[in-house]
Every structure is written in C-alpha cells, then in structure tokens.
Amino acid sequence: MIGMEDVMEKLAVCMQCGACVGSCPVTGLNEFNVRRLARRAYLGWAGQEVLKEEVWLCLLCARCYENCPRGINLPEVMVRLRQQAVKQGLVPRTVSLTRSNLSKYGNPAGVEAKELMEWASDLNVPKSGDRLFYAGFYLLADHIESMVRSMLRVGIKADRVAAAAALLQRVGLGGLVKAAMKGVGLSYRQTLKRYLLTLPKLGLEVSYLYDEEPWVGTELHTYGFLEDFAEHAKRVYALLKERGIKEIVTPDPIAAVTFKKLYPEYVDGFSIEVKTVVEALAEKKPEFKAPVEAKVVFHDPCMLARYLRVVEEPRTLLTSIPGLDLNEPVRNKQFTVCCGAGGLEVVNPSLAREVAVKSVQNLLSTNASLVVSACPMCTMMLKLGVEKLGAKAEVVDLGDILWKALAQEA
Ligand code: SF4
Ligand code: SF4
Fold it and tell me: Residue 46's pLDDT is what?
C-alpha cells in the first residue's frame, strides 16, 4: 500500500507537460484539470474546496497514467486525496450512502441479498469447489442503473458535487433510493447467468456462492475509505480461503482488478489466482455455430484494457463469430475512452453521462450499429450515452453475443 509520502515523491517528477489534461475525458466538461490538481496537491495547496469538489470528479480511468511521460500514477494520487477528504468529513452524500449500505446490507447498492438472488433459483451450479465464479457488479447493475436513472430524472446538473448533494438533500436520498428499487429488471443478471452457464459447457467447471458471495468492496478503495478497505479485504480473503478457493473467475473486470491488483497490496500472502471470464473463454477457443450478422464495435473497459491489459481476448472471441464485422475506433485498446462510470455515476450522474457521450461518439465514428462491452458499468453508461445522443445503436454485453453465437437458449 503506498502512502501520501510516496505520492508526493512521484509528483515531484511532474514536468507540467499537460499530457494528462489532454487525455482526460473529464477535461472541457467543467473546471476539472488534473495537472493543476496534482500540482496543488504537491505544493500542499489542496485545500477544502479541492477536497470537497474536484477530487470526486476523477473516474480513476488511468488514461492520464497511460499518457504521462513520467509514469505518474494520477489515479493513485486521487485515491490518496480522497482519503484526506474522508478524514476531514468532506464526502458526497451518495458516497457515504454506498459505505453505510455495505455495512447494513453487505453491498453498496443497499439491496437485500434475497432480492438479488431470485434469478439463481433454478441454477444447478455447485456451491463448493476450488474454482469460484464471482458475480460482482453484474449482480447489482440492474439496481445501480435504476438508481442512476432516478437521479438523472430529478435533474442533477453536471456542475458541482456540492450542488448535487444539496439537491439530493431536498428530494430526500432515502426516498429516491426506495423509488428506484421498485420494479428493477433482470437484464444484467440474465447476462450473468449466461456467463455462468457457458463456462461448464466449455469444460470449465466452477462453483458459485449464491447469496453467500462476499462483496469485493471496490468502492471503499475508490472513495478513499482505505482503512475500511484493508479490513474488508482481509475478511473477504479469509472467507474465501476457508472455502478452499484457489482460483476466481469473474466476468466483472472491476472485481477482477480489485482482487488481482488491490487485494495483494492490502492482504499479506494473498494467493488466489484471478482471471476474467473473457480470458478463460478465449483460452477455450469455443466453436461458434450461429452467425451474428452485425456491424460491431468493441468498447474496451478501462479496467480490462488499462488495468489488466486484456485487449486481444475479446477481439479473438468476436472475430471467431461467423457473420460478425468487427470495427476499431480511433481510440481503442489501452487508449480507450472511459464510459463515465468509475464511481462518478454515483457522485454526479449527469457529468458521468456527458463523459459517456464522448465515449459513444468515439465508438460510433466507426458507423457500427452494435456496441459490445464486457463490463456491466460500461454497458450501463454507454446505454445512457447512446440515449442522450439519440443515436441509432444498441449496446449489449459480450456475454449475450457469445451466448447467441453458441446457439444457446434462455
Ligand atoms: S502528464 Fe505527467 S508529467 Fe505531464 S503534467 Fe501530467 S502528471 Fe505531470
Ligand atoms: S484517471 Fe481518468 S478521469 Fe481521472 S484524471 Fe486521469 S484521465 Fe482524468
């Protein structure tokens, strides 16, 4: 785990070139300027205004890190600054809610485990085994999308975090959440089920913990609750070891990054192998029988492309499907444009959607009519971006396309 001193040491080599600002998807949408913010932090000028406002606007997408000639990990700087904000009590209300939901419900969306698991009632996947299928954000995405749409409906503007918080105060966050949780669909959990059923069909046996799946805790790290995250990660790891888990396979790249990159920093002796389902499926070289006649563009999720360097595997899978025409946008692979999530969808959904619009514009410059992603949060944001633009394109998850191409039913 790196500390604030290490962050300062890294910032000391910044040469103020501005490559980070030029590549940041939030640049130009408001006053956020990552170079200026990093400079202020280095000089000790990141006062209350910065901690209350600007530090919460970063998506942790790491595009700046990818482009920085000095290799400065600005997302890590942001997390450390958020930790300072947490210590001073300068946390947006929706962020506080995700944290209290985790302690009350066991997940940041605040949904009862029983309600989340209805989709799995007819599953025949064993509960024990050393290779664990981990659902992660696919389990919560239907509820998160409903919540984000509700927040957009009440008109939170893409200007200031504080203004958004004040509006939430007025409309009543509790009531908003309750209303959003009514009549939530099963779209992402349907995709989840397809991923889960596809693996054994291709010879990869997995176990699944159903309502006992422990929440990975990503948002505790994202929002700077680092002591909480350390404790949480240790608890989850102990539980997984107790169950005899040796390998985690997950379709959720956010959970994959958290387990693979963050847990080893916070948990001594972390020794579980972590793989995304995309990697596992590409290794199996499935034979696709049913054609998918469509002009497709693949959106590289930041977590998959930049954090895990998984870029060829989804393309290998897609180009193996008969009839599918895969197109590449100008900004792709490790230079992908973030979808706008990364925690911003909760802090300021309207601003997050503006970022999504930029991402969709990059993707649709290919004239594709089908956008495919491999992350539930990306799919959610890209759908919002397409709707905002009024574009004629559909957004689907890779799991649904593969399911169709394997000629499966359900
Ligand atoms: S890209 Fe790197 S070196 Fe250039 S201003 Fe940003 S942080 Fe500094
Ligand atoms: S991580 Fe992404 S959103 Fe945050 S400063 Fe870097 S490029 Fe901008």
Answer: 78
CB of 68 shorter than 6 A to ligand 1? yes
Ligand 1 near 11 CB (within 6 A): no
Closest-lying ligand to the alpha carbon of 20? 1
Q: How many structural domains are present in the chain?
A: 3
Instruction: Give me the residue label for tokens 């300072």.
Output: 84
The verdict on 276 and 350 lying in the same domain is no
CB crowding 299-328: b at 16 or more within 10 Å, else e: bbbbbbbbbbebbebbbebbeebeebbbee
Count other Cβ atoms within 10 Å, centred on residue 137.
26
Residue nearest to atom 4 of ligand 1 (CA): 17
Residues 6+ apart with CB under 8 A from 46: 37, 40, 55, 81, 84
Sheet holding 131-133, edge to edge: 207-208, 131-133, 247-250, 273-276
User: What is the Cα–Cα distance from 231 to 250, expressed in whole angstroms?
Assistant: 22
CATH number of the domain at 34, please.
Answer: 1.10.1060.10
In contact, 291 and 321? CB cutoff 8 Å: yes
Pocket of ligand 1 contains residue 407 by CB under 6 Å: no
Which residue's C-alpha comes closest to atom 7 of ligand 1?
Answer: 14
Please state the ipTM of this predicted complex: 0.99
115 plus 199 within the same structural domain: yes
Give the mean pLDDT per block of 10 residues along the chain (410 residues). Answer: 72 94 95 92 83 92 97 94 93 87 89 86 94 97 90 65 55 57 80 95 94 96 97 98 98 98 98 98 92 97 98 97 97 98 92 97 98 98 98 96 82
- The Cα 27–Cα 19 span in angstroms is 11
Ligand of minimum distance to the alpha carbon of 30: 2
Asked if residue 370 and residue 244 are part of one domain, the reply reads: no
Q: Which atom of ligand 2 lies closest to the CA of 302?
A: 2
